[in-house]
Q: What sequence folds into this?
């Protein structure tokens, strides 16, 4: 009687473990990596939320691709080459002088980039918004000086520096975002892409 009792007790103890192992095996994929739908467990709302957040952050980063290094280099080169050119309202050439948006138009070259003429128009709907911490050389940075609306634009050079045509009586020069004045009047930054890349993005959408 005692051996039978031991056998019965052993079976009772092992049955829950066997059942647990069976359920665990049913939840795991088979050798071919396929898990039957009847045994697939629904993802938790937390994991789904995390996946959605990850995907959205990845998709957001893809929405603002960096400008190609060659194009960025060309933009910065054209801007730096006209350092010292006098400011002139409405100017957009080295011979006639530059205002802030005229310098941007000249540096970005209308043949390669399609930009509006005024700083406010550039900031309103052109390009993709970029966080200040994500700025890259060639990005446009916008300011509101003595106004609630954007009325000044500059080209970011890197290391918190930018090039711009400041105002009457000044010339095209390099300044820094670290100055309290520019920090106070900073509004937004935008990244623009060449015409061919913009067209490709429209087709992909």
A:
């Amino acid at each position: 009687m005692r051996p039978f009792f031991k056998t019965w007790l052993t079976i009772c103890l092992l049955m829950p473990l066997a059942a647990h192992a069976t359920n665990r095996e049913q939840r795991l994929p088979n050798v071919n990596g396929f898990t039957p739908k009847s045994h697939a467990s629904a993802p938790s709302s937390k994991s789904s939320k995390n996946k959605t957040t990850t995907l959205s952050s990845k998709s957001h980063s893809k929405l603002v691709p960096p400008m190609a290094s060659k194009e960025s280099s060309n933009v910065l080169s054209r801007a730096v080459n006209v350092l010292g050119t006098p400011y002139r309202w409405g100017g957009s050439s080295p011979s006639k002088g530059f205002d802030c948006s005229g310098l941007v138009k000249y540096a970005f070259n209308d043949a390669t980039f399609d930009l509006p003429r005024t700083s406010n128009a550039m900031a309103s709907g052109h390009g993709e918004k970029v966080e200040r911490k994500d700025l890259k050389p060639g990005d446009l940075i916008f300011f509101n000086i003595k106004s609630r609306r954007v009325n000044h634009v500059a080209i970011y050079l890197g290391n918190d520096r930018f090039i711009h045509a400041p105002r009457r009586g000044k010339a095209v020069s390099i300044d820094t975002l670290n100055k309290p004045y520019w920090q106070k009047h900073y509004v937004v930054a935008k990244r623009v892409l060449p015409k061919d890349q913009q067209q490709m993005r429209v087709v992909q959408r």
Observations:
- The chain has a mean pLDDT of 77.
- The two ends are 78 Å apart (CA to CA).
